[in-house]
């Protein structure tokens, strides 16, 4: 992937259920916020040794949403979620890779 494909130009809430990431290559990713929450790759949500998901989807409310979205250096986002979870980091490269699988229509 190129730098333009993994460098966000703009990050914004795009309606109540969608997070928009506009990339410097012109592509826009729209993620359903609950689906993005379920894709958290932190050690609480994914077993570090086996890669198995630890997060029970039933434990994440249907109306979960970001309370705060912050940059982590120049490589990732950290999202504070309404369900109290805030330890996950979403690297820009991973977000771009997830785009084909998680992007909202």
Question: What do you see in this structure?
Answer:
The chain has 105 residues and is an alpha+beta fold. It has one domain: NE0471 N-terminal domain-like. It has 2 helices and 6 strands; from the N terminus they run βββαβββα. It has helices at residues 33-38, 92-102; strands spanning 8-13, 18-23, 28-32, 66-72, 76-81, 89-91. The strands form 2 sheets. A 3-stranded antiparallel sheet has the order 1-2-3. Strand 1 (8-13) and strand 2 (18-23) form a beta hairpin. 16% of the residues are buried.
Give a brief description.
The chain is of the alpha+beta class and 105 residues long. The protein has 2 helices and 6 strands. Strands 1-2-3 form a 3-stranded antiparallel beta sheet. It has a 3-stranded antiparallel beta sheet with strand order 4-5-6.
What string, H for helix and E for strand, traces the elements in order? EEEHEEEH
| Cα shape | globular
Strand content: 25-35%
> pLDDT under 50 segments (min length 5)?
none
What is the CATH architecture annotation? Answer: 2-Layer Sandwich
What is the CATH fold-level name? NE0471 N-terminal domain-like
Q: In whole angstroms, how far apart are the ends?
A: 23 Å
- Figure out the total of helices: 2
* Largest sheet, strands/sense/barrel: 3 strands, antiparallel
- Secondary structural class: alpha+beta
Radius of gyration: 13 Å
Mean pLDDT across the residues is 92
Strands, count? 6
Structural domains: how many? 1
The CATH first-level class comes to Alpha Beta
């Amino acid at each position: 992937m190129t730098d333009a494909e993994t460098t966000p130009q703009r990050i914004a809430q795009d309606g109540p259920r969608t997070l928009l990431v506009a990339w410097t290559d012109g592509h826009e990713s729209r993620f359903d916020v609950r689906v993005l929450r379920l894709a958290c790759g932190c050690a609480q949500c994914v077993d570090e040794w086996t890669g198995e998901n630890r997060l029970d989807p039933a434990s994440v409310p249907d109306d979960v949403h970001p309370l705060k979205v912050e940059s982590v250096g120049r490589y990732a986002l950290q999202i504070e979620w309404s369900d109290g979870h805030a330890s996950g980091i979403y690297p820009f490269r991973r977000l771009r890779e997830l785009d084909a699988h998680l992007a909202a229509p």
